[in-house]
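--- STAGE predict ---
source: upstream dedup step, 1 unique chain passed
mode: sequence only
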Amino acid sequence: MNTQFHQIVSSLLLNAERDVRLARADGDRALADKAKARLDTLRAALEIYAASYLVAHGVRPWPRPAHP
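--- STAGE serialize ---
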């Protein structure tokens, strides 16, 4: 379950990141803001699931992503 959820949300994140870049490149601020809100919501959903899993099972469902 964890792997499938992570894969699904990761692919949605990839699409949302692409949408943000496309909207910014197009100069459409309203669309960029909407895409950024969707991206932030997906990131929050992924972290909420991971935090809930950690509380319930004592381990994270997947390793934390490395931040540059």
